[in-house]
TrEMBL record:
UniProt function note: Cytidylyltransferase required for protein O-linked mannosylation. Catalyzes the formation of CDP-ribitol nucleotide sugar from D-ribitol 5-phosphate. CDP-ribitol is a substrate of FKTN during the biosynthesis of the phosphorylated O-mannosyl trisaccharide (N-acetylgalactosamine-beta-3-N-acetylglucosamine-beta-4-(phosphate-6-)mannose), a carbohydrate structure present in alpha-dystroglycan (DAG1), which is required for binding laminin G-like domain-containing extracellular proteins with high affinity.
PROSITE patterns: ISPD
Subunit structure: Homodimer.
Principal cellular location given in the protein's record: cytoplasm
Protein name stated in the entry: D-ribitol-5-phosphate cytidylyltransferase
A Pfam match: ISPD_C
CDD domains: CDP-ME_synthetase
GO cellular component, one term: cytosol
Record keyword DNA-binding present: no
Location in or out of the cell: Cytoplasm, Cytosol
Keyword Transferase in annotation: yes
Keyword tags: Cytoplasm, Nucleotidyltransferase, Transferase
Enzyme class: transferase
The organism's taxonomic lineage, starting at the top: Eukaryota, Metazoa, Chordata, Craniata, Vertebrata
Length: 379
């Protein structure tokens, strides 16, 4: 992906009460696979290296909750800001922190481009963020759109149809949106109370107060906003589906083993998201920690060592120490390569019995261990 040449930061409004979803917990703090919804959106932003600061705006009573989420999930580059009574007021509070540099704990630079993204839209990818940022740099404002699924109609005072819009000409405005910071900030400064209390569209503010016609960028279907209870179930299904679509291949530093890892990576990458790493498990590897916190649940661990149980035990220990919620089964496939001219496997029968016993034990923790022995006679 092309590097971004401007300073970019993001504001995530997360200060709502989730009335339409119902329940005591505002939707952004509802757990999906054990992790709060807001944490998915923060993580999506955090994974993008060219986003400098992430402002999460929450209601005053949820500031401590948000801070503990940041701590628990190890979020970086995040500042928590007090929200307002409406979404626009919350976003304005988030922007003010950059403009007035009023954050008490960190020095925040005013970005050239600011992304605004609802904290309840967890599936935002780098690709669409890059598109809206690039378009905002050129046009002053940009936002993701989707085709309408229903026709928009207006009712008259008598409750009967007044008129109907031609669906093909209209789009649903989604998020993310991006703006030249000065444009959106000036727009918010000029807003009336009516705008701040009843408005629902940031792009409209840029048009109304700064005469900026936003560029509209076609977004993907999973940018939708979690609004009703059914959306939580849909989001959870997507998360589960994504989890089953990624695998991490771990090899040690030995060339022959790393080579097998590389070949596997090449053959699997068209079907699933594969991360292949070559490390020494005895060291506390930060790359592996990052993969754990990215919530990868499938691991293929290749080695040619005689004592494979130690290796797998180290991996399980590291997994347990990480914050990955073990609500979803972790699959660990241990591939033992026997690279010798000898027809016998280098792994001993006793070691295999140990692995089986170990697999039975960790199954209780929702970690499924499988073993595969491969004899490579003519390496
Ligand atoms: N005072 C508010 C209201 C909303 N939001 C945020 O704006 C985003 C989109 O708003 P919406 O889906 O309307 O959230 P809620 O206001 O919480 O939902 P509802 O309208 O059903 O109460 C959410 O991330 C929400 O937390 C905010 O930061 N501050
Ligand atoms: O789609 C959007 C921007 O265009 C916003 O997410 C939407 O307007 C939020 O509005 P509401 O708080 O009324 O759900």
């Amino acid at each position: 992906m092309e590097p971004v040449s401007v300073a970019v930061s993001a504001v995530l409004p997360a200060g709502g009460s989730g009335e339409r979803l119902g329940g005591a917990t505002p939707k952004q703090f509802c757990g999906l696979q054990g992790r709060p919804l807001v944490s998915y959106a923060v993580r999506a932003m955090e994974r993008v290296s060219w986003i400098s600061d992430i402002i999460v705006v929450v209601s005053p009573e949820n500031i401590e909750t948000m801070k503990s989420i940041i701590e628990k999930y190890g979020h970086k580059r995040v500042t928590v800001v007090k929200g307002g009574v409406t979404r626009h007021r919350s976003i304005f509070n988030g922007l003010k922190v950059f403009a007035e540099n009023q954050s008490s704990n960190r020095l925040l630079q005013k970005p050239e481009v600011v992304i605004i993204h609802d904290a309840v839209r967890p599936f935002v990818e780098e690709d669409i963020l890059l598109k809206v940022v690039t378009a905002a740099k050129e046009h002053g404002a940009a936002g993701a759109i989707r085709p309408l699924v229903s026709t928009v109609i207006a009712s008259g005072e008598d409750g009967c149809l007044d008129h109907s819009l031609e669906r093909a000409r209209y789009r649903a405005s989604e998020m993310p949106q991006a703006f030249l910071f000065d444009i959106i900030y000036q727009a918010y400064q000029q807003c009336t109370d009516h705008d701040l209390d009843y408005g629902t569209e940031c792009l409209h503010l840029a048009l109304k107060y700064c005469k900026t016609n936003a560029k509209l960028v076609e977004g993907t279907a999973d940018l939708w906003k979690v609004t009703y209870k059914r959306d939580l179930y849909a989001a959870e299904s997507i998360i589960k589906d994504n989890l089953s679509q990624q695998i991490c291949i771990i090899t040690d530093l030995k060339e022959a083993v790393a080579q097998v890892g590389f070949l596997l990576h090449e053959s699997l990458k068209s079907q699933v998201k594969v991360e292949a790493i070559s490390i020494s498990l005895s060291k506390n590897d930060s790359h592996l920690q990052n993969i754990f916190s990215g919530e990868c649940y499938n691991f293929l661990c290749i080695n040619d060592k005689e004592y494979a149980t130690e290796e797998i035990q180290q991996l399980v220990d590291m997994l347990e120490k990480s914050n990955i919620p073990l609500l979803y089964p972790i699959v660990l496939i241990l591939v033992h390569l026997s690279i010798s001219e000898n027809i016998f496997f280098s792994i001993e029968l006793e070691e295999l019995t140990k692995i089986k016993k170990f697999a039975r034990e960790v199954k209780k923790k929702n970690i499924l261990v499988y073993g595969l022995l491969i004899q490579c006679k003519h390496w």
